[in-house]
Amino acid sequence: MKQEKSAMQRPTVSRAISRRKFLGVTAGATSALSFGTFIRSGLGAAKINILTWSNTLKAMDDVLREQAAAYTKAKGVEISLEFINQQDLPAKTAAIVETGAGPDVINLWANGAHLFAKALMDVDDVANDLGKRLKGWTNIAQDIGMVEKRWKAVPWGIIPIALTYRDDWLKEVGYSTFPDTWDELLVASKKLKEKGHPVGFSLGRAIGDANQFHYPLLWAFGGKEVEKDGKTVAINSPATAKAVDYRRQLFQGGETEDVFAWDDAANNRAFLAGAVSITVNAASIYWAARKDAPHLREVTNHALFPKGAAGRFGYSSPILLGIFKFSKFQKEAKAFVKWLMEPKQYSAWIGFGEGMMAGLLNYYEDDPVWKKDPKLETIRQIPKYVRMPGYPGPPSRQAQEALVKFVIVNMFARACKGMATAETIKVAEDDLKTLYAKT
Amino acid sequence: MAVIADTAGQEVMVRPWLGPFLRREALTGYALLSPAVFLLAVLLAYPFVLAVYISLTDRVLGEPGTFVWIRNFLKLFQDPLFRQTVWNSFVYTVTTVFLKLTLGLTLALLLNQEFPLRNVVRGALLLPWVVPTSLSVLTWLWMFDSLFSVVNYILLGLGLISKKIPWLGSPFWAMVSVVIVNTWRGLPFFAVSLLAGLMTIPRELYEAAESDGAKSLACFWFITLPLLRPVIAVVVLFSTIWTFADFQIVYILTHGGPINATQIFATMAYDVALVAGRIGEGSAISLFLFPALLVVIIGLLHYLRRE
Q1: Structure pTM?
Q2: List of domains in chain A
Q3: Which residue in A305, B110, B221, B293 is a FRET match for B116, CA 20 to 30 A apart?
């Protein structure tokens, strides 16, 4: 009580001063502390930051976390994994490359190594060592991982994209095996639509599904964006016209009209809801069916893309691991990436994928994961047929830009909306010419 | 008594101790302003100047570019996709601002009346504006879904349509969808601002007009609208600027599709700069907004100043 009284009697001026002092001291302390952390981050044990996509299959990400923890225990290098939405990766990677600061290891997609080659460090030692010990890299791996004859990123895997179909409905219309040519597919689709089970291949802004269907379609008919030199635009050809006419017939005769609005998740939902009989996807539909629609899983199967006049093609999403030049722990990052690709770790990782992920080293073609389920055998075959956008030219930055701008998909979409074949090809040709005119 | 000059240069008599204090206060004023000015400079001015600089180069991600002056802008004029984007942005902005203005004014007039639970309704009205756009637009995405659209379900059930509407699948309907969502989101801003404006109009004017025999439409046209003009101008100005630069609604709902039917400046700039990696061009696209908006701002402020 006595202390309170004396506190009350103290002049207010002193309280005002002490408040100012309090602010001053706090500000000083905060800046000192932040300076302290700044110093601390520069020294100390090795810490590798990895930015990667949030896998549709959570189990695969959990395996990564466990493996990272095991590595830290064994080697003493701290590993920090950050998972973000796949859609956000391009913007985030762009920001990192521009500012020159961020994670040490980055998950790149498709032509990512070509796009960001200048910001990535050479990983020839890692890639060559892995290739030597694990039966060599596939052609696709070299296309996406090597820029001007140097390995700029380690191909981490590929998500094989197949035609997912309802074999019970196909049997109903008289097909015991999946149609092997595009023409047969058209006939089957018409029959399926008549029975109320149309096919569905996205013609909308589905950066995965839409591109993954239409590039192989174009290539199978003999069409191409550019010539082998990677510069001369060659889209305007009779082969492309045939492909466009075919796509229009497929849409009008056998497909659901919803496809213009489909993003990447829409066809999964449609298939699982029983609204379509055939669509293009990774093994994720099959995997999701186990939880959401087990009876569907029995009747769902996968098929290779049909054969066309120019052969059989596919386009799947390859992923890579790149190491930035600005990383302070390049040696440790390389060592960790190499360790991840070793059979013990990698096999466990794709094992949980159950067909979602295939390895790009020939060794992993015989991985036990493919024996888990006979329906996965087709998926195992797919990487053989995969080509990258820009084929037959190299997977260049312009090809990637054409992809994200949906040049090819929109060409087919306009045709299905009613535009004349010659006209829609001309629009695509102009778009591509504008694109490829840039260096 | 000391004599100092005040801000207008007149000599005034002030108390002796006030003189130096006034002079010092100006300095204190500047000192207090400086953090805000600094933040503005760093967060607004610097990025803007940098964007202008980058738009004059051919920079791609991660590589230094070379100066190409206005080549990016000229190339954009020739790009049919860009012309489509300009048209889309124009249609989008004009339609939504017009709808928001008319519907907002209607709402404001209604809310100015007396009715039970008026305050509750006024508060609830703000919800579309307050809820984070990304979340609300995701819900709209579900409502417009091609397979599971609740809107189609209801319309079909009521017998108002015979075939389901391709909300996000047809170029026309996709634009309708984004306009609907933008109007829904922006209505509270218009309604509340116009309501505030309405409440400042003195009742006596209406009473005087009614005693002269004016009907309600005449009251509205000759009293309400002219007195609301400053508020309308300001609200339209802000809304035009925000809608021109809108990103989330189009990005989440249609991502510029189908076939670029709803591609607007911000989404195209994002695709070109961040996804395709051409930040020189992306900056040029986003800077196209600037002269257009400048014209709008000057026009509206001139209109305001006439009052």
Answers
A1: 0.78
A2: 47-160+317-381 (3.40.190.10), 162-315+388-437 (3.40.190.10)
A3: B221
